[in-house]
Design goal:
The structure is a single chain. Helix content is 30%, strand content 29%. It is elongated, with a radius of gyration of 19 Å. By secondary structure, it is α/β, with parallel strands linked by helices. It has two domains: 9-98 and 186-219, 3-Layer(aba) Sandwich (D-Maltodextrin-Binding Protein, domain 2), CATH 3.40.190.10; 99-185, Periplasmic binding protein-like II (D-Maltodextrin-Binding Protein, domain 2, 3-Layer(aba) Sandwich). Strands 2-3-1-4-11-5 form a six-stranded mixed sheet. A five-stranded mixed sheet has the order 8-7-9-6-10. It contains eight helices and eleven strands. Bound molecules: adenosine-5'-triphosphate and 1-O-pyrophosphono-5-O-phosphono-alpha-D-ribofuranose. Adenosine-5'-triphosphate is lined by residues 15-18, 59, 77, 79-80, 97, 99, 148, 165, 167, 186.
Length: 220
Amino acid sequence: MTSSDMNYLTIALPKGKLFDLSANLLAKVGFTAEGLSENSRKLVITNEAAKIRFIITKTQDLPTYVEYGAADIGIIGKDVLLEENKNVYELLDLKYGFCRLMAAVPQSLLQEKMSDYAHMRVATKYPRVAEQYFHSLGIQMEIIKLNGSIELAPMVGLAELIVDIVETGRTLKENNLIEVASIHPATARLIANRVSFKMKFDRIHKLSEDLKCLLESEAK
Ligand SMILES: Nc1ncnc2c1ncn2[C@@H]1O[C@H](COP(=O)(O)OP(=O)(O)OP(=O)(O)O)[C@@H](O)[C@H]1O
Ligand SMILES: O=P(O)(O)OC[C@H]1O[C@H](OP(=O)(O)OP(=O)(O)O)[C@H](O)[C@@H]1O
């Protein structure tokens, strides 16, 4: 299956926190399929009548599916887009999934200025974002890539700092971590494969416009 199948529009949705919000939003503009659920073990769900195909991916892999055209479009957090840095079009800010990328340290390691953290270890799920951020400050750090529960790393001496996303701040607070730098805000984005955007322009453009109108009307 490839999106070169001109009859279908293939939409990638990520498992996890953005799945339900994204599936519900798309349903409101008529893009849905029977059995579309994060809990389903089916990874490809097709609506034959509407010529829509959904694929369900791991969050971090979604931009890769869209870059290679295995999906025409997808929905993914800006944090993941910044980290994965794939060659895709970002069409629309969907204004949900609010969080921000930031750096934090345990209270006991708090320094006066960012340069005081030079050469310390940073645990993160976002090594590229972390590397770029510290590089932009002219600070060299040792980046340690982890896949989750990042807040654990400073508590057990794996790293001094973390770079992660924060939403409510509850996880930081419960683990005695203090935010020392805000790196980038993030929300869910509609993205498109560059070739698909040209070849299936009418469908993708209409979907993007319909979503934009819906978000504007819901914001009123
Ligand atoms: N509190 C939050 N925690 C995590 N992600 C959030 C939060 N708020 C918004 N988001 C957004 O939701 C996206 C998906 O989060 P989720 O935790 O499902 O990611 P994941 O990497 O798939 O998780 P896991 O690796 O645990 O399966 C994030 O990339 C981010 O854009
Ligand atoms: O500010 P808060 O509202 O507390 O949310 C932030 C937390 O949520 C995310 O973790 P997630 O639940 O995705 O688990 P993970 O650490 O395994 O990625 C993120 O990595 C933080 O740990």
